[in-house]
Amino acid sequence: MSEALSDLINRSFQNLQEGEIVRGKIVSIRGKEILVDIGYKSEGILPVDEFTDPSEIQMGAELDVLFESFDDEHGMILLSKKKVDRQRCWNDVLAHAHESMVVDGRIFKKVRGGFMVDIGMEAFLPASLVDVKPVRDLDQFLNFTGKFVIVKINHKRRNIVVSRKDYLEREKQESRRHQLGSLEVGQVVKGRVKNITDFGAFIDLGSLDGLLHITDMSWGRVSHPSKVVKLGDEIEVVILGIDKDQAKVSLGMKQRLGDPWEKVQEKYPLGTRIQGKVVNILPYGAFVEIEPGIEGLVHISDFSWAKRVNHPSEMLHIGAAIEVLVLNMDPAARKISLGIKQVLENPWQKVRDKFSVGERARGTVRNLTDYGAFIEIEPGIDGLLHISDMAWNYKNLKPVDFLKKGEEVEVIILSIDWEAQKISLGRKQLTEDPWQNADQTLPPGNLAPGRVSRIANFGLFVQLENGLEGLVHISEIPGVSQQTLEKSFQVGDGILVQVLHVDHQARKIALSLKNVPTSTGASVPSES
Question: Where is 440: in which H helix or E strand?
Fold first, then answer.
């Protein structure tokens, strides 16, 4: 017996196991089935559709197949070439592939939750990993051929998950790094407005986005980025800063134009009159734009020569067009001081020779305060009439007790400070000081008529005929207590009092009702 025949007999009786890979030879082709001799007592059946390449189906061709099972009904063996190919492919993947590896593939079938991709073997592509953005129409990706990233290999289940999204993001990052490396500070580039926020706009530069901050859009004041750029606009910007670690780029628009502050001294020398627009109002003044990018401050003290301005909003509003005068300038600090009143004629210069100390003048009460009254003695010229100069006897009184707003009064000029532009006025000085002869006109012991001017818990204040005020202490009012004082007397009551003492230096007069005859002092209660 030859050695070949002996080997054939041995193989014919070998004990094949399901799942075993054996070598066979094509011995017959019958429609959709192929008979393969694997050296067993009967041939095996192999489906034609397991061959992806029809040229492989040839009589006598040898191939490896998987022994799947026996067909007891026909006594045939069921074989599979496809499973052998898949096993070898899987082994090849395990030998060469790894997670994060980039592979070529073709999306060939849509399944629940995603797609199947042919990468040499079947791999699963979840729908969420098809693109960097959510996709509504998944059918558009069928038969797509491209690159994918292996994101998971499950050895137990022998399956692979791939991602196109990861590949696209990886490509974008690589492109971003490349573009970052090509950019330089000061470089002018073109971009498209991609997004607008309250603080600026994001500009699409291609592989990366740059931030155009609101402060870098214009040399002038910008209320909102949307006032300067619109979505989709193609604009030119300057690279201001590059952060390669964070992949961030800062951009500017105004830097493409010349800085208006560079020639500000030449354009606006001191003393120049300029037309401007009010762009901001604060408690201490107003900012005026004299050209885009150049603003100056009008301090509240430079609003008016004579009018007392408590807040800039009393005279100005945002958007108002006004004429100003350049007072001071600091280009390095980007500061300009402007004045409104300096554009107008100073009324104080006109009246410098008109008024002098000691002269009488007539004016109108323009404003009343707790400490006095402002009297307009000339258009635009106010003087202060302090409460202490309203009357010789002013203690415990207020300006409203002497004057009314809008009332015309006569005053005397007490002092003038031309530099500070202040005038002090007096009204009591129009009459003689009654205190000078008070100790002669009101000798102690004399009786003097008067009227109750005020009632306090410690006594009565009495206005005498000479205009001075004296105090009748409660201890000098017989038959009266603190509880009954206001019941016994009323403001305005005529009353006869006795002078006890005149303190010329302290300007105080002590009065009494004790020794006043009841027949002449009718308002004095009788003793019980």
Answer: helix 438-441
